[in-house]
Amino acid sequence: MRFYIKVIPIVAEAGISGFESPAAEYKELGLSLDQLIIKNPNATFIGQASGQSIWKETRLPVGVGFGETATLSKAANHAAKKLSGFNGVAVIDSKISRQEILRRMDVEDVWGVGRKVAARLKLEGINNAVQLSKQNPKNIRKQFSVVTERTVNELNGKCDENC
């Protein structure tokens, strides 16, 4: 059985004319749709996926997450798959939706935070993603790394040229 995910750009300057491809090919190639699409953060997308049928056939959780940065997209995808109330689709498009999802995410589940960094953050009293997002990025850089600083910035919707 083949499963498809369609992503249709609304903004023409996104540079993508729309595509349809088996999701299995993306898994085999190690590609992530949000990483491919987020290159133009000004683009708006409509996504549609039938998670119920995929779950029935494969027992694999399916989720679609949208956010302003790659890290927020990953957080939304995590919420879509693992947090109750999202039913496979989560969008972080406001401060309220960002805070709601990040509050419910363990710091270990934040994209770019490894187990060792998560353990150190927890020793500092930073247990969830919203607590990490409230940290001073410059202090985080001094204590951890430039990668963790970028993560904090992206959790707040701030993006540099690498985003």
Key words describing this protein structure:
globular, two-stranded parallel sheet, 163 residues, three-stranded antiparallel β-sheet
Can you tell me about this structure?
- With 163 residues, the protein is an alpha+beta fold.
- It is 45% helix and 12% strand.
- It has nine helices and five strands.
- The strands form two sheets. It has a three-stranded antiparallel β-sheet. The chain has a two-stranded parallel sheet with strand order 4-5.
- Helix 4 links the parallel strand 4 and strand 5.
- Helix 8 packs antiparallel against helix 9.
- The protein is globular, with a radius of gyration of 16 Å.
- The N terminus is likely disordered.
Based on Cα principal axes, name the global outline.
Answer: globular
SS content category: alpha+beta
Kindly report the average pLDDT value. Answer: 77
C-alpha termini separation: 35 Å
Radius of gyration: 16 Å
Low-confidence regions: 1-29
Beta content comes to 5-15%
Strand order in the sheet with the most strands: 2-1-3
SSE sequence, one letter per element? EEHHEHEHEHHHHH
Largest sheet: number of strands, sense, barrel closure: 3 strands, antiparallel
- Count the E strands: 5
- The helical percent reads 40-55%
Q: Given the structure, what is the number of helices?
A: 9
